[in-house]
Amino acid sequence: MHPYLLHSGHLLLPTFGVLAALGLMAALTLSLRTAAIVGLDPDKLWNAGLFTLLCAFALSRILLIATNLHNFFAYPILLLTVPSLTSTGILLTLLAALIYLRIRHLPLLDTLDAWSPCASLVWAFLALGHFAEGSDAGLPTTLPWGIRIPPSHTRLHPVALYAAIAAATLTLILLKQLKNRRQPGDAVSLALAAAGTLQFLLTFFRQPYPYTTTSPYILLDPIQWIALGMIVVAAIILLLPRKLVSHAV
């Protein structure tokens, strides 16, 4: 495991942070190409992507501070270094992005299609970051590619590496789909269905959440519920008239 690219005294450069930043920049750069494929203004899509990323960062920090005011006043710098993207932050970011798209007159499905391979590319970089820091622990395995996370000597499934390979493959598939799409929404529906299915399957190689094994009433992990939700949204996009979805915002 290599959680830090640089560790010198008080200077720490986390590998995950570096890979996340590279992934975001790569996704923004890729959006210039995907925008042209779907017939959107590349500059407008770049600005929309940058706005969404800044919203995700700002809103997540605001929520973190609001829910931890005492700790923020005591250790402001330390608290702001804590990962803070939550489901509430993601929901607020999506809402802000939808409002921005409406104001800038960017068609919803075309924009989501163009963003689909960019999102899967970010997923690949984030998965590599988790692999580097050893934060996505898998179940024990006897397979030769199993990894050990110190101090344990047990070989585990490299779930983060599985996810990175799956995400990179999905990115290539989506780029091909984008060039051959028949109507708006084809790429994003494929992205949601494929990513949801992959995430659902990957949970069978991950260590389960503690409360899912102790409570008989919880049948699925939270990630599995989110994955099923993604598949349902993909089905809705495919089944509903595309003009209706496009004018929903």
> Would you report the number of β strands?
2
Strand order of the largest sheet: 1-2
Principal-axis shape equals: globular
Could you tell me how far the N terminus lies from the C terminus, measured between alpha carbons in angstroms? 44 Å
Helix/strand structural class: mainly alpha
Low-confidence stretches: none
Largest sheet: 2 strands, antiparallel
SS summary, helix count: 11
Radius of gyration: 19 Å
Residues in helices, as a percent range: 55-70%
Strand content: under 5%
The overall pLDDT, averaged over residues, is 86
Order of helix and strand elements from N to C terminus: EEHHHHHHHHHHH
Pfam families: LGT (PF01790)
Protein name: Phosphatidylglycerol:prolipoprotein diacylglycerol transferase
GO biological process, one term: lipoprotein biosynthetic process
EC number: 2.-.-.-
